[in-house]
From TrEMBL:
Gene3D superfamilies: Glutaredoxin. Thiol-specific peroxidase that catalyzes the reduction of hydrogen peroxide and organic hydroperoxides to water and alcohols, respectively. Plays a role in cell protection against oxidative stress by detoxifying peroxides and as sensor of hydrogen peroxide-mediated signaling events. Residues 1-148 form the Thioredoxin domain. It catalyses: a hydroperoxide + [thioredoxin]-dithiol = an alcohol + [thioredoxin]-disulfide + H2O. It holds the Pfam family AhpC-TSA. It is an enzyme of class 1 (oxidoreductase). The active site is at 39 (cysteine sulfenic acid (-soh) intermediate). It comes from Jeotgalicoccus meleagridis. This is thioredoxin-dependent peroxiredoxin. PANTHER family: AHPC_TSA FAMILY PROTEIN, THIOREDOXIN-DEPENDENT PEROXIDE REDUCTASE.
Length: 148
């Protein structure tokens, strides 16, 4: 089984989260940028489904290249009930192969592709979701988790 890479990222409060922090099944979702329409939709969808995800024994972390300050603002603005991790140097995103050249509105830029990993407490990747649909993300996750 493929392993999630070793990581050490700060959350919005400066607490360091590592593989050792994963004590149960964990959803680690990567998104392009705080306070953008698709990313806000995705985060709020997860927020609204958090009690059901928690009932399934799942912890959720969001990851982007934004700073702790931007993460804190995004959490407060949208009443998010999970931590956001800082990958400012995109080291983890690059290691996972989800950081690279993207195109939108006729422009090319470097960024994170919306991708989600479901990881067990031993850092085994149970499922990888590519091309995540921001509006249906929580439902897709719940379907997978209930099957497992």
């Amino acid at each position: 089984m493929e392993k999630f890479p070793k990581f050490e990222l700060e959350n919005q409060d400066g607490e360091v989260i590592t593989n050792d922090s994963l004590t149960s099944t964990t959803v680690i979702y990567f998104y392009p940028k705080d306070n953008t329409p698709g990313c806000t939709t995705q985060a709020c969808d997860l927020r609204d489904n958090m009690s059901e995800l928690n009932d399934l024994g799942v912890t959720v972390y969001g990851v982007s290249g934004d700073s702790k300050t931007k993460h804190k603002n995004f959490i407060e603005k949208n009443n998010l009930n999970f931590d956001l991790l800082v990958d400012e140097d995109f080291k983890l995103s690059e290691e996972l192969g989800i950081y690279g050249l993207k195109k939108a509105f006729g422009k090319e830029f470097m960024g994170i592709s919306r991708t989600t990993f479901v990881v067990d407490k031993d850092s085994n990747i149970l499922k990888r979701f590519d091309q995540v649909n921001a509006k249906e993300h929580a439902d897709d996750l719940k379907s997978f988790l209930k099957e497992g």
